[in-house]
Write a structure and sequence with these properties.
There is one protein chain. The two termini are 15 Å apart. The protein is mostly helical. It contains 6 helices and no strands. The protein has one domain (3-117). It has helices at 3-22, 24-28, 32-41, 47-63, 71-91, 96-122. The longest helix has 27 residues, at 96-122. Helix 1 (3-22) runs antiparallel to helix 4 (47-63), helix 1 (3-22) packs across helix 6 (96-122) and helix 5 packs antiparallel against helix 6 (96-122). The relative contact order is 0.16.
Length: 123
């Protein structure tokens, strides 16, 4: 893939992952529909703000150039978060229509990380 393709792939995947990460504000605000889903999955409500902050910090870290030192940790944290979400959905008997979304987010996160490494090599 050429430099332009890497850049486009990076920003599309990173933008998607950041958008998902910034949705953590809904966790922090404990939106009723999310509270209901967490209850159905057997997750305690007190985890919601914490998990929301984790998602938001991960999104900020992968987008801001000033925080390059923490990029790998942020990517790892997001992978752990969404792998855990996938596991919880599967363990609760949810179908591919539910956990497929988290798998797509994991793939986008991996693509974002790998293209960020490629971008560093071409700069």
């Amino acid at each position: 893939m050429n430099s332009k393709g890497i850049k486009i792939t990076y920003w599309l995947s990173t933008g998607f992952v950041a958008f998902v990460g910034f949705s953590g504000i809904l966790n922090v605000l404990q939106i009723e529909s999310l509270v209901k889903v967490n209850r159905e999955l057997g997750l305690p409500q007190y985890l919601m703000p914490f998990l929301g902050v984790i998602k938001i910090l991960g999104a900020i870290t992968i987008v801001l150039p000033l925080l390059k030192r923490f990029h790998e940790a942020a990517y790892a944290g997001l992978i752990f978060y969404f792998t855990g979400a996938t596991y919880v959905l599967i363990a609760n008997g949810k179908g591919i229509e539910k956990y497929g979304v988290t798998l797509i987010i994991i793939i986008a996160t991996v693509v974002s990380y790998l293209t960020s490494l490629k971008r560093k090599q071409t700069i």
